[in-house]
Amino acid sequence: MKALLEALPRRLCALQRRCSSAKAAATTSRIPNDGLGLDHFIAKSQAEQRHTRQAKIIPSLADSETYLSPEDYHGRGRKVKFMTYGCQMNVSDMEIVRSMLFANGYAETESKAQADVILLMTCSIREGAEEKIWKELKKIRSASKRQVVGVLGCMAERVRHTILEKAKKVDVVAGPDAYRDLPRLLAVAGTGRNAINVQLSLEETYANVNPVRTDPESKSAFVSIMRGCDNMCTYCVVPYTRGRERSRPISWILDEVRRLSDEGVKQVTLLGQNVNSYRDQSETSFHLATSSTSTVPGFRTVYKPKTGGLTFLTLLDKVSSIDPEMRIRFTSPHPKDFPLEVIHLIRERANICNQLHIPAQSGNDAVLEAMGRGYSRELYLNLIRDVRSVLPDVALTSDFIAGFCGETEEAHQDTLSLMREVQYSFCYVFPYSMRGKTRASRRLVDDVPEEVKQQRHEELATVFREGALAFNQKEINRERLVLIEEMGTKRSASAVSGRTDGGVKVIFENEPLPSEVDGSERALLPGDYVRVKVTGATSQTLSALPISRTTLGKYRSQKL
Ligand code: 5AD
Ligand code: SF4
Q1: What is the overall mean pLDDT for the chain?
Q2: Does the beta carbon of 126 lie inside 6 Å of ligand 1?
Q3: CATH architecture group of domain 55-197
């Protein structure tokens, strides 16, 4: 009787919740409700979304059945092993997850064996990325039965229930917009049930979450500025796994960068799936709104031109003004969102790095059209010409896909010739991997044989390396500013490595160097700026003679 009376207020509370909240996620032992995918969300109104988002943080109907209350969401010191796969965006997402779990009483462990919970931040971009994760899940399952295992991120969104069926050891599945719900999902899993939330949101940017950095000692940090992608390139699964584009309000980003500057961070990389289409349309920023559309003339989009709000130009201007000694980079952009004003700002601002990632994907018009990239080879090359006319020294990097649907040998040759013409300092090259749900998987035929894809992939890699070597050789005898990142290299414990403004890795011996500011001498540390003279080059790295320790401001003023 006593137990019944004690349970009564909880039960009443749960019933109230049942009336006031929409069900956001469920345990799979009842009606499997994994939330709704992108298609549904496109149709839903913003108002409904706001309601759903609120509902997500209110304990759901499923909890009332297991009598879980917010106190049950506390980790009570349980240890979590965080495992991150895929891109920088995933590293950044894991920092958000860590922040949320630490705030809920969880602790971190480096050891899989000692962990109570293992969380995998996953990637779906190519089949190979998912295969790695299936293998890891199998390994975890055969090693232990007692741990709670969670699959987070893109693969959770894409494969959903299949994960629970195929990898029987998985207890929690949480999509990229469901991390706030993790304490509850883990609590449900603690009762022996599976818990899943793959609901996508039109608004979630984790705006107010202070990420817990993976390496707090590092002098480089990543700051997430937007999520999702509206471009719908035909080959790409990202719009389906990460949902619609939305930008984090500028004030939160500026606060985070200020905090990092106070902590002594010397390099911030702004992150987003489509970073330069940043557009803060939050109500609080509306009074600052300046811009109309910011797409490069001639480039097409699948969506109606976006207007209003604060664009990437404003953000970049404000972020780079916070700390003139802090280098600013950004990734990954789309070529359509590089108005000349952004390029001019990069030239003016000493601390915005002279490196641009401008993914081409292909150098052939028919393939670009089939990919839905919204530009031709000529438009792309015009953009590169315009960029170089303002930033003659700029280091350009790109992404390319080998063997996309319908790619002929001639089309492949066009891509090789584009690579030679642009001469990138680095390229990511990938063999095409067909992904379910994408427009290419529904409308096009994956008709380039695997061995031809591999062959073309290798040819792309060879040609980009030739270009990178030529680019790097031009650096020989030049003076460059290097920001030191790491002490010791694979070959020499007494060496240090860092990067030029253009993002090229430079390696040299660590020796006491005089400071240009006060003449004092000491050995180098991460976060030091060093003036060097480049002495040698491979396609991947530069070697150099260090001259002096300096500051970004001093180096730049002498260059001008
Ligand atoms: N197959 C191969 N590469 C892909 N990318 C995206 N989707 C696919 C796919 N299905 C590449 C693109 C993109 C990068 C992040 O990954 O080059 O720019
Ligand atoms: Fe994928 Fe294209 Fe969006 Fe990049 S821009 S995430 S390739 S859809």
Answers
A1: 87
A2: yes
A3: 3-Layer(aba) Sandwich (3.40)
Question: Residue type for 217, please?
Answer: E
- Taking CA atoms, 227 is separated from 248, 249, 328, 333, in Å, by 8, 12, 19, 12
Q: Where in the chain is the domain with CATH 3.80.30.20?
A: 220-474
- Distance, in Å, from the CA atom of 23 to the CA atom of 10, rounded to the nearest integer, reads 18
What 8-state DSSP symbol labels residue 405? T
For residues 399 and 361, the answer to whether their CB atoms sit within 8 Å is: yes
* Residue corresponding to tokens 């090359």: 381
Predicted confidence band at 284 (pLDDT cuts at 50, 70, 90)? low
The CATH class that applies to domain 478-558 reads mainly beta
Q: pTM for the whole thing? A: 0.87
The whole-number pLDDT of residue 2 equals: 43
Q: Which of 242, 274, 278 to mutate to test the pocket of ligand 2 (most atoms within 8 A of CB)?
A: 274
Measured in Å, residue 238 CA sits from the centre of ligand 2 at 6
List 5's β-bridge partners, or say none: none
CATH code for the domain defined by 220-474: 3.80.30.20
Q: Report how far residue 206's alpha carbon sits from residue 482's, in angstroms, rounded to the nearest whole number.
A: 33
Ligand 2 atom closest to Cα of 230?
A: 3
CA–CA separation, 58 vs 212, rounded Å?
Answer: 24
User: In b/e form, how buried is each residue of 148-185, taking b as 16+ CB within 10 angstroms?
Assistant: bbbbbbbbbbbbbeebbeebebbbbbbbbbbbbbbbbb
Nearest alpha-carbon partner for 319 in 228, 265, 251: 251
Which of ligand 1's atoms lies nearest the C-alpha of 125?
A: 7
Question: pLDDT (tens digit, 9 = 90+) per residue, 52-98?
Answer: 333 333 344 444 445 788 888 999 999 999 999 999 999 999 999 99
Angstrom distance (rounded) from CA 361 to CA 518 = 48
Pick from 19-33, 403-417, 504-518: least confident? 19-33
